[in-house]
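Quick one:
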Amino acid sequence: MLNLMYITNDPAVARIAEEHGVDRIWVDMEFIGKYARQGGMDTVQLHHTIEDVRTIRAAVSRSEVLVRVNPIHEATADYGDSAWEIPAAVDAGADVVMLPFFKTVDEVRTFLRLVDGRAKTMLLVETPEAAEIIDEILALDGIDEIHIGLNDLSLGCGKKFMFELLTDGTVERLCAKFRAKGIPYGFGGIAALGKGMLPAERVIREHYRLGSTRAILSRSFCNTSIVTDLSQIDQIFRTGMAEIRALEAECAAHAPEDEYYAENRRQVELAVKVIHAGIVEREQYST
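Output:
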């Protein structure tokens, strides 16, 4: 089954997610440079804190706590540097620490040194520069997991739609390299079944075809800025997680080379072409 991750700093929501089988509660401390990259996009932009890590650590017992720290950075007048932030996240209870938006081997080496084996390490490959030097990065010791960040990587590659990276070979190429190294990996996020510009069931089947074992439950799976009633949130997780796990059981019954996946791949390629064309048309109309 996919290791599913959900972003929240609300302990009540975290407990609901855990109860219904979410594997990791994600505390998102990344803010440095993020608005400049994604300011015009409908993406999640948070600024969780070390205190949020402690709160979520205390709220859950079975789910792991994943903390996305900031890219490797120096201290400013109002925020500490990576040498402070990363150990602080571990001390506060992070089981997994994620490094986002890196571009060099040295940044990854610094991250691994600062974690110092005290938590699992996850790299978020989301820059063209990182993708270009992935072989050098994979030669380092101490990388426990890797996730491909489709939002920023698609922006960096000049794509109109993040799932174009699924159909142009980028995700497949990277996954093959991770698999050859024996490092668990995942990519992007998934909505509830039947939802998403590219329907979640299509994306989940691609995860299985590509050997991915990690995925983010996207904001559209349960948007707690819109749905605030805990009983409704509970129902969303209860139903949504059961549907995802049922589809996974279906996926597990098929080998990657089966027609089941070949047909899904064709449908993904067709859907991405249609979505891309629609985006281009809207852009032309707006100008």
